[in-house]
Specification:
It is a single chain. This protein is of the alpha+beta class. Helices cover 36% and strands 20% of the residues. It is built from 5 helices and 4 strands; from the N terminus they run H-H-H-E-H-E-E-H-E. The chain has a 4-stranded antiparallel sheet.
């Protein structure tokens, strides 16, 4: 954990809301001079707290109205089996998140898809063909209630 003060938190909160803020606007928003603000942002980047900047797309506008959460169980849980699965899943653009989990399944994937036919293709032609997969269980989201990338700092 990295030690941050109130000004750092204000900077991080502002940038999580709008990563495109200019340094001048950010400095004004957090009550710092532009040079002091820039130094703090650079320090937050250098220590790894700010991991990067990204543009967020609206899934529906991008034609990806479907959102599924898929539990995957593997035939083995050894390091090599996990590495093979993780390498393979890393190359699948429809998988927008993948977590190694504790519980009945080994992995939880978040999958974006266009429609039911597209999800069927992803399920049968991609997910079930991944190395070591013995069970695939899908839960389809009906509606997104909350979606954020902001961390509670």
């Amino acid at each position: 954990m990295i030690d941050v003060d109130g000004r750092d938190r204000a900077i991080l909160t502002a940038l999580q809301k709008d990563g495109r803020l200019s340094n001048l606007d950010l400095a004004a928003a957090v009550g710092l001079s532009p040079s002091a603000c820039l130094r703090r942002v650079k320090a937050l980047e250098d220590c790894g707290l700010i991991a990067g900047y990204a543009m967020l797309l609206d899934p529906k506008a991008a034609g990806l109205a479907g959102n599924a959460f898929v539990s995957i169980s593997l035939d083995q849980q050894g390091r090599q089996a996990l590495d093979r699965f993780e390498a393979a899943v890393g190359g699948i653009p429809e998988v927008i998140a993948c977590y190694l989990i504790a519980g009945q399944a080994d992995y939880l994937l978040q999958v974006a898809y266009r429609d039911s036919a597209d999800f069927e293709r992803i399920h049968s032609e991609i997910l079930t063909q991944l190395p070591g997969v013995v069970r695939v269980q899908s839960t389809l989201a009906l509606r997104t209630v909350k979606r954020t990338t902001a961390l509670p700092i």
